[in-house]
Design a protein that fits this description.
The complex is a heterodimer. Chain A contains seven helices and ten strands. Chain A is an alpha/beta fold. In chain A, the strands form two sheets. Chain A has a six-stranded mixed β-sheet with strand order 6-7-8-3-9-10, with helices on both faces. In chain A, strands 2-1-4-5 form a four-stranded antiparallel β-sheet, covered by helices on one side. The longest helix of chain B is centred in the first third of the chain and has 38 residues. The chains are: A alpha/beta, B alpha+beta. The structure holds adenosine-5'-diphosphate (ADP) and magnesium ion (MG). Magnesium ion binds next to helix 1 of chain A.
Chain lengths: 230, 371
């Protein structure tokens, strides 16, 4: 057991219901994620993976149970926007870049909620774009980029405000295997080099096995929590 | 990249829709500028016209037409005897189509009345007496009729001679054809009838005494109205109607603009639902989303306002050049009217954005992960 001050997330009896209880997306999950961990979450479609990620990202509130981020309750946080802007980075399956902005501009969008002066945003965005190997694509709009490139821009965007946690929902789900490998390598590199906590939802067992720890879900519950089995 | 840049990009992403919305709002604002500008200008030039004639009180019978109703010239003698009255000048005023001009103000003035004295000769001479078949033209009237000294001028059945061109010191005066009262009475077949009496009061007459005089005039002669020069036009039934109509029309046009902006902003919010939820997931505060929508909407209003002012002013300039009304139109396009039109447009923009902004504030970030 690691020291308690390195605990990033702690969930106890976390439940999420939709449509007045008709849909139980999470039926009471307990777990804890520590600083610098790489956790993969797998499970069949509809088992509650995305819902769990929504809770971790404070995109929605749990119905009951408790969820702490670094000892602070995510339910009672008075400014979830600030938490989303500074503490976490989101990576989506369908990239969700804004279509009317260039790659460089997309990366700057989250920076509007930071303290970074306008003059420095562009420079930082360029640095991030370079770190995902796409500086030559800075002025391209998303429609001019390949799927893999779009996801790399999205990863650069998720890093805009220097988060300590990355939450990724099937980030390779819309990519071919070659691009999937590039994206996964990029995420693993961020996890290793920058000691980022990485929570990654995936369908793909090969990807899930790259994680240090694997959560398997079934019907709103966690049915396995441990080192990935070969 | 700044927040403002994002707002501008929000408008340029659908250029055709934005353009049409701008057109809608700018037509409303152009209507405000043109109609209000014209009616204000008319009011103002009427006032300066009275001042140029040195008139303190105007006595007339305002009916529902633009020219006042005729009454007996015996009223003039009665008014002259009242206290504080220094001088009077009777007139018969008529709006007529003369030769090439479709609408010209004709002013038949009491031959020894003071209203003649403010006309400054630019060329030619004044009529020799009340019987001479002569007319003098204000500068703009002369331009509109394309007449110079010595030219004949046909008014109804009468053939007169233009003997002089004058500067009357005001648009109304300069747009008029002036002749002796008996002459016009004869032409119009209204012998012994007048429809306007200009009254000049003795120096030092107080505001209260002026009001008192007005009531006495009204009492001494049935059915006439007596109005101090300043309130004259605003009390005219027909002018009030023109004014109300110009505001009504403008507001209706602006309302159409409001609906256009609201519709566009609602569409924008709906079609960007997913994007907005992504922005929220990336950490944008809901208040920033609301501000984004309101600013976009305000910017639409502002741009529409600027375009509307340009269209309105250009439209009036073109109208002024048309033959029919040349010289009669002196719109009051003060910077005040132009600025307040733009302010109206911005307010319209913000108001139209309120409901779409509220809708945008209801979008949840959870949407970002669904689909
Ligand atoms: N907003 C919602 N309203 C109603 N039901 C929902 C909503 N979001 C998710 N669900 C339901 O909750 C369950 C879990 O969904 P989700 O977390 O998206 O699954 P996964 O990501 O593992 O495929 C599913 O049955 C889904 O239909
Ligand atoms: Mg999912």
């Amino acid at each position: 057991m690691k020291n308690s001050n390195t605990c990033v997330y702690e969930a106890v009896a976390l439940k999420k219901e939709y449509e007045g209880g008709h849909v139980q997306a999470l039926r009471g999950v307990d777990f804890r994620i520590d600083e610098g961990e790489f956790v993969s979450i797998v499970g069949s479609s509809g088992c509650g993976k995305t819902t769990l990620l929504q809770m971790l990202g404070a995109l929605d509130k749990p119905s009951t149970g408790s969820l702490l981020y670094r000892g602070q309750s995510l339910l009672e946080m008075n400014d979830p926007s600030a938490y989303r802007a500074r503490e976490i980075g989101f990576i989506f399956q369908s990239f969700h870049l804004l279509p009317t902005f260039t790659a460089l501009e997309n990366i700057q969008i989250p920076m509007l909620e930071s303290d970074l002066p306008a003059s420095e945003r562009r420079g930082r965005a360029l640095t991030l774009l370079r770190s995902v190997g796409l500086e030559h694509r800075a002025q391209h709009c998303p429609s001019k980029l390949s799927g893999g490139e779009r996801q790399r821009v999205a990863i650069a965007r998720s890093l805009a405000n220097g988060p300590s946690v990355l939450l990724a929902d099937e980030p390779t789900g819309n990519l071919d295997s070659e691009n999937a490998r590039i994206i996964l390598d990029l995420l693993v590199r961020l996890h290793e080099e920058q000691k980022m906590t990485l929570v990654l939802v995936t369908h793909d067992m090969i990807i899930a096995r790259k994680a240090g720890r694997n959560l398997r879900m079934l019907d709103g519950r966690i049915v396995f929590d441990g080192a990935p089995t070969p | 990249m700044t927040f403002f840049f994002i707002i501008v990009r929000g408008l340029t992403r659908r250029p055709v829709r934005t353009g049409l919305t701008l057109l809608g709002i700018s037509i409303g604002i152009a209507a405000v500028v043109a109609l209000v500008g014209i009616s204000r200008g008319f009011e103002k030039s009427w006032e300066t016209g009275l001042k140029a004639r040195g008139t303190d009180i105007v006595v007339s019978k305002m009916g529902s037409s633009l020219a006042p109703k005729p009454f007996s010239d015996a009223v003039a003698a009665v008014i002259l005897k009242l206290p504080h009255v220094a001088a009077i000048s009777s007139q018969f005023v008529e709006l007529l189509s003369i030769e090439s001009s479709q609408m010209m103000m004709l002013s038949g003035r009491q031959w020894d009345g003071y209203a003649w004295k403010n006309l400054k000769l630019i060329s030619g001479r004044m009529p020799l007496d009340a019987k001479e078949q002569a007319v003098v033209l204000g500068q703009t009237a002369a331009d509109a009729l394309k007449k110079k000294v010595g030219d004949p001028l046909q008014i109804e059945a009468a053939e007169l001679t233009v003997v002089g061109i004058v500067d009357g010191g005001a648009v109304v005066e300069n747009g008029s054809a002036v002749l002796a009262l008996p002459l016009l009475q004869e032409i119009m077949g209204e012998q012994g009838r007048i429809n306007v009496i200009d009254v000049r009061v003795t120096p030092g007459t107080s505001e209260a005494e002026l009001k008192q005089l007005c009531t006495e005039i009204v009492r001494s002669a049935p059915d006439v109205t007596a109005l101090a020069a300043g309130d004259h036009l605003s009390n005219s039934q027909s002018f009030r109607m023109v004014k109300a109509m110009s505001w009504g029309t403008s507001l209706l046009a602006v309302l159409v603009g409001v609906l256009g902006v609201m519709n566009t902003m609602l569409m924008t919010v709906f079609e960007r639902k997913q994007e907005i939820s992504v922005l929220l997931a990336l950490g944008w505060k809901p208040s920033r989303i609301v501000r984004m929508v309101l600013w976009e909407s305000a910017l639409l209003g502002f741009l529409g306002g600027v375009a509307g002012v340009i269209i309105g002013v250009a439209g009036i300039k073109m109208l002024q050049k048309t033959e029919a009304i040349r010289g009669l139109l002196e719109p009051d396009l003060g910077i005040g009217l132009l600025l307040s039109s733009i302010v109206i447009a911005v307010v319209v923009g913000v108001l139209s954005g309120l409901y779409p902004a509220w809708r945008s504030s209801r979008i949840t970030p959870a949407l970002a992960l669904q689909g």
